Amino acid sequence: MAEKKYVVAIDQGTTSSRCMVFKKDGTPVVSDQMEHAQIFPKPGWVEHDALEIWHRVEDVVKGALKKGNISTDDIASIGITNQRETTVIWEKATGKPIYNAIVWQCMRTQDFCAEWQKTPGWQQDAAGQGKVKEHTGLLISPYFSGTKIKWILDNVPGSRERAAKGELLFGNIDTWLIWNLTGGANGGVHVTDVSNASRTLLMNIKTLKWDEEMAKFLNVPIAILPAIKPSSAVYGNTIPNGPFGASIPVAGDLGDQQAALFGQACFNKGDTKNTYGTGCFMLMNIGEVPVSSKNGLLTTAGYSLDEGKCTYALEGSIAVTGSAVQWLRDNLKIVDESPDSEHFANKVDDAGGIYFVPAFSGLYAPYWDMTARGIIVGLTRYIRKEHIIRATLESICYQTRDVVEAMNKDSGVPLAELKVDGGAVKNNLLMRLQADILGAKVVRPVVNETTALGAAYAAGLAVGFWKNIDDLRANWAKDAEFTNSISDAKREEGYKGWKKAVDKSRGWVD
Ligand code: ADP
Q1: In this predicted model, what pLDDT tens digit does every residue of 150-197 receive, in sequence order?
Q2: Is any atom of ligand 1 closer than 6 Å to the C-beta of 330?
Q3: What is the pLDDT of residue 413?
Q4: What are all long-range contacts of 235-242, with beta carbons under 8 Å and residues at least 24 apart?
Q5: pLDDT digits 0-9 by tens, 45-80
Q6: Position in ligand 1 atom list of the atom nearest CA 322
Q7: Which residues of the chain fall short of a pLDDT of 50?
């Protein structure tokens, strides 16, 4: 058989679905992308139509293959990466979802979580320590899938009985897509990988198996859950009458942030990446022991290359980073486009003594303080819009520093180098400020599409397209490197001011 030329990644995100085709050197050949509807039935509720997502995935697969004139004979395998935590329950016999997909951002289970937090035996302290963390590495929060599954089974009439009879299946979007790609109601495989399963509140972070105590508390029948597999393994083959029009192994599955970790070749303990999008997600490889964070971070499955084995990660998520730049653009209208922030911020030497804490929806890691709200402090008559823009870029870097401080404390090793990716890393000033504020090296890869690349890597490894992770390491190429240019004293003085500003932002709402 002729040597295969490509691996395909399907990147199913919160606002759009993308299909990217990669060559053996890890560079993209072609991609296609389509958005899907965001459904807001009530304030704080967010849903997607899972069938629409599947159809958009079919469209972008066909679109990418057509645009790139890719022959399916040349495709070695397919990898999936997905918006995490988003919850779908569907009928096994028909493939029809019984309710819209409940999106990770959806807050509908907040009241349940507040009650849960008060339940004897389940209380967690301010740092998130408690039974949920011990079992799952996570926190009591509407963010994760567990309470969303419970909500659907509690609210869709007859669904509990149908689940008990084995008529229903649950999946995050990875599971939903793999089931459909491999045949759906006609023999589709019902699987997930450890990285996605570790975001459900239902997987035991140590055993990598569904956790009976968690499932019992959340009243979720284990029978509806998918089989937990490694992130790199042949799960099944696509059906010839699906979007690929051929039988190709589906062989990689990683949640989006873990896929970026993998695509950045963060294979060694201590390797860390930060993705700069609307929010920031930092993940640090912590090796094969699921160290529990004492400093406000989540412990999550990073990736698994072999059954029963797992490389773990600490994760710190920041809610508002690139979206603070969008706020300058859309609400204050002081920049026309997000990239203009670099031009204006470069016109001043510093932020003129002000700090902007963009706690628009509270503060996430490491504070987890939902009472905080956004503030700009230190204003004087001297301050111009350029200072506010510069303070916005600095806020992205300072929030990242907060997470790095927590990671340093948990891991006991100071971060030396941060690999970066995501839409905002094209901003060179932002990257320079980040190196200064961290006092660490910041490195940007040539291929910024690390999420899709990570899924492709997982899929390619499983079928021997790449032999081992050394092949992947060799593919990683640097685009630019940013190093610290300020004194320790100046850095620490700046950070002290930031901490003071964060304190002022906290406790604003009850
Ligand atoms: P996501 O995947 O979270 O939707 P992207 O990775 O596409 O986001 O990044 C887009 C975000 O990055 C937006 O919030 C935008 O404001 C911000 N952004 C994009 N380019 C720049 C830039 N040059 N400087 C600062 N912020 C930017």
Answers
A1: 999 999 999 999 999 999 999 999 999 999 999 999 999 999 999 999
A2: no
A3: 81
A4: 235/178, 235/182, 235/189, 235/191, 236/178, 236/181, 236/182, 236/183, 236/188, 236/189, 236/191, 237/182, 238/78, 238/181, 238/182, 239/181, 239/182, 239/183, 239/186, 242/58, 242/180, 242/181
A5: 889 999 999 999 999 999 999 999 999 999 999 999
A6: 14
A7: none
Q: Which residue's CA is the closest to the ligand 1 atom numbered 19?
A: 424
What tokens appear for 312 in the block?
């773990």
| 94 Cα–ligand 1 center, Å | 39
Closest to 171 measured CA to CA, from 161, 158, 180, 160: 180
**Does residue 366 have a cis peptide bond before it, meaning omega lies within 30 degrees of 0?**
yes
Q: Which of 138, 160, 151 is nearest to 45 (CA)?
A: 151
Count of Cβ atoms closer than 10 Å to residue 287 Cβ: 15
With CA atoms as reference, report the closest residue to 271 among 317, 321, 312: 312
* Assigned token pair, 384: 């111009």
The pick from 12, 257, 276 for probing ligand 1's pocket by mutation, whose C-beta has the most ligand atoms within 8 angstroms, reads 276
The b/e string for 340-368 (b: 16+ C-beta within 10 A; e otherwise) is: ebbebbeebeebbebbbbbbebbbbbbbb
pTM of the model: 0.93
Structure tokens at 501: 């500003």
> Would you state the pLDDT for residue 362?
85
| Ligand 1 atom index nearest CA of 329 | 16
**Is residue 376 within 6 Å of ligand 1 at its C-beta?**
no
What does the alpha-carbon distance between residue 224 and residue 168 come to, in Å, rounded to a whole number?
A: 6
Number of H helices, E strands in the chain: 16, 21
Q: How far apart, in Å, are the Cα atoms of 105 and each of 24, 150, 174, 252, 358?
A: 35, 16, 17, 25, 18
Radius of gyration of the chain (CA): 22
d(CA 396, CA 338): 14
- CA nearest ligand 1 atom 27, residue: 424
Instruction: Determine the Cα–Cα distance for residues 399 and 366; give it in Å rounded to an integer.
Output: 9
Q: What angle do CA 128, 151, 13 make, to 5 degrees?
A: 75
**Ligand 1 within 6 A of CB of 426:** yes
Instruction: Give the pair of three-digit tokens for residue 200.
Output: 């459900």
Dihedral, 106, 42, 117, 303 alpha carbons, nearest 10: -10
Phi, psi of 90 (to 5 degrees): -140, 165
**Residue 464, number of CB atoms within 10 A of its CB:** 11
> Do residues 481 and 458 lie in contact, with contact meaning Cβ atoms separated by under 8 Å?
no
